[in-house]
């Protein structure tokens, strides 16, 4: 019998959400929780997590390639130069989520990212400085913990720091989702075959 939050498929046990949509299998197995240290990849993750607010992640995942095309690969230096004409272009793009506030937020956050990189040298290094200490991490990650903790002390700190710098759509829940996605925390459930693999990747990862 599968434990809560886990399911067995083809002889391997995974987080059960992996089976809820065809696109989730690759995302769960090869992306979610894998440490990321590239500035542009991290900026993309921040933006897509912001677009997810109030929506299902599968909607964003299915449109991700469209987002990448529309936002020029999430090159924040390019996006920082966007004008009202670009906002109108994006609002007419049926391949993305046409939410003006979220589109404007991406442009704002690109400008803030340029400022942060100019000041500190690296978006990745700045973000990873918010990695929670061992004492802040749960001894076990099960469905009950995962369901009851959509934020963390570290994600609240990160959210406040970004908001202070003028970023938007970076609330604590959104930032916790970012931390899960970028490998800052390993929230594959206990018993998921990929949890130990992600932990090995995290141990080998050189923090920027």
Any overview of this molecule?
With 208 residues, the protein is mainly alpha-helical. The protein has a single domain (6-128, 136-204), classed as Hypothetical protein, domain 2 (Endonuclease III, domain 1, Orthogonal Bundle), CATH 1.10.340. It has twelve helices and two strands, in the order ββαααααααααααα. It has helices spanning 22-30, 39-52, 57-62, 64-70, 76-79, 84-91, 100-120, 123-128, 143-148, 153-164, 172-181, 194-204; strands at 6-9, 12-15. Strands 1-2 form a two-stranded antiparallel ribbon. β1 (6-9) and β2 (12-15) form a beta hairpin. α2 packs antiparallel against α7. The longest helix has 21 residues, at 100-120. It is globular, with a radius of gyration of 17 Å. The termini are far apart. The mean pLDDT is 94.
